[in-house]
Design brief:
heterodimer; A: alpha+beta; 2 domains; 9-stranded mixed β-barrel; 2 helices; about 15% helix; B: OB fold (Dihydrolipoamide Acetyltransferase, E2P); 1 helix; 7 strands; globular
Chain lengths: ~280, ~130
């Protein structure tokens, strides 16, 4: 009897120890980047306001969405005219953000320019850029594949991204990102837009333990006369910071009217604006 | 701005760059808010809706003897929770003074800036 009890205790101890070992290994794996790949773990927040091209914004420190604020991408005359038209709509309060319709992704490249937080999941086959404010997932395949042939792809919000590692820098090219047709995708709230023919080369790297940087070169044969260079920076938030679910439709009290005006609903779900059109 | 002539403690501040600070990141255009104005109201919390995409704070204010419910929009619970807010930060019955950027059309609503609780004098949000 005593011998059977001793054997049972031994087995229980072994199982317990094994479980702890497995748990420890799992925890270790969670904090260890894949061999040869950089550690981009943690929660990150973009630095600064959501003006996409802060180097050219006028007035300086202008906020995206405020009347009269604009940037200066190297637009063709046609797309400069489209941008100016959007700027006028903003002045009239009739330039709704497409994401106000909950469930609409921000699209590329706007996805690199969001409030709230980011996570970067690095695996040998792909790197995933996850944004809390969304829904957005950018999949950057690094398994050696090429972009789909033109006949096998179509414009999507996130586009198609393939990349490679140059040291600790992820270099990826994005094509087939859905451009604007009637302002259904925007670059930022100043009214900037691009076409579905745009190509983006992004160099994403960790500058130091607390900072990441994305350098982007944008070429768009329809909208731009020259390559457009943008740099976005991200800072690491304290260890243990959480990213959360972002269910925009949970309580959206700001629908858009037929005329493009963003409305405000009261707690009863009815518009409280003085004028609804 | 007749709606802002309150009998209790509604004060319309003159536009002041030092007071006005950028609103919380919103998932929609902020064109409806007048961020050049700051309104201060004394009232009672009716409800806080702690939901995405925006937290809403419902405050009942005595305006010329009439109870008026104001809707104050704040950031997402996600971002606010990372800045010290909790789903219980505002409770029904709390007596508060709140500051907001009002809607341009005079609707009893605005973008939340900050609040001070009457019970203990604690503040939350931007309150200089």
């Amino acid at each position: 009897m005593m011998r059977r009890t001793a054997i049972a205790l031994f087995i229980a101890a072994a199982v317990f120890a094994g479980g702890r070992l497995i748990a420890a290994q799992a925890q270790s794996a969670a904090h260890t980047p894949a061999a040869g790949l950089p550690d981009w773990s943690g929660i990150w927040a973009m630095q600064g306001p959501t003006v996409f091209d802060r180097a050219s914004v006028q007035p300086q420190n202008g906020r995206a969405g405020d009347a009269g604020v604009r940037e200066f991408p190297p637009y063709t005359d046609e797309w400069e005219a489209r941008y100016k038209k959007n700027i006028e709509l903003i002045k009239e309060g009739r330039f709704p953000d497409p994401i106000t319709t909950c469930g609409t992704p921000h699209g590329f490249p706007r996805v690199m320019n969001l409030p709230d937080v980011y996570e970067f999941a690095v695996t040998p086959q792909a790197t995933y850029i996850l944004t809390e404010n969304g829904p957005n997932i950018i999949r950057v395949y690094t398994d050696g594949r090429k972009h789909p042939a033109p006949e096998d792809r179509w414009p999507t919000y996130s586009g198609a991204s393939v990349g490679r590692w140059e040291g600790d820098t992820l270099v990826f090219e994005t094509v087939s990102a859905k451009g604007s047709s009637d302002n259904d995708v925007i670059v930022d709230r100043t009214g900037m837009i691009l076409s579905s023919d745009a190509r983006f080369v992004t160099r994403l790297r960790k500058v130091n333990d607390m900072a990441m940087e994305a350098q982007m070169v944008i070429e768009d044969p329809k909208a731009l006369k020259a390559p457009w260079k943008i740099t976005k920076q991200y800072r690491k938030l304290p260890a243990g910071t959480w990213a959360w679910d972002y269910g925009c439709a949970e309580n959206n009290r700001n629908p858009v009217s037929g005329s493009g005006k963003t409305l405000t609903l009261g707690p009863d779900g009815k518009p409280i604006d003085k004028k609804v059109d | 701005m007749k709606a802002l002539k309150f009998s209790v403690a509604a004060i319309l501040f003159a536009a002041c760059a030092l007071v006005v600070t950028p609103p919380a990141a919103a998932h929609h255009s902020g064109a409806m808010f007048d961020d050049a104005k700051v309104v201060e109201l004394k009232g009672t919390i009716k409800e806080m809706q702690w939901k995405n995409p925006h937290v809403w704070i419902q405050v009942v204010v005595d305006q010329d003897g009439k109870a008026t419910e104001w809707s104050l929009e704040a950031g997402s619970p996600n971002s606010l929770s990372r800045n010290g807010w909790r789903s219980t930060t505002f409770k029904a019955g709390d007596e508060v003074v709140v500051r907001l950027n009002p809607m341009k059309d005079g609707t009893a609503a605005g973008m939340f800036i900050g609040a001070k609780f009457a019970a203990d004098g604690k503040t939350i949000g931007r309150w200089q």
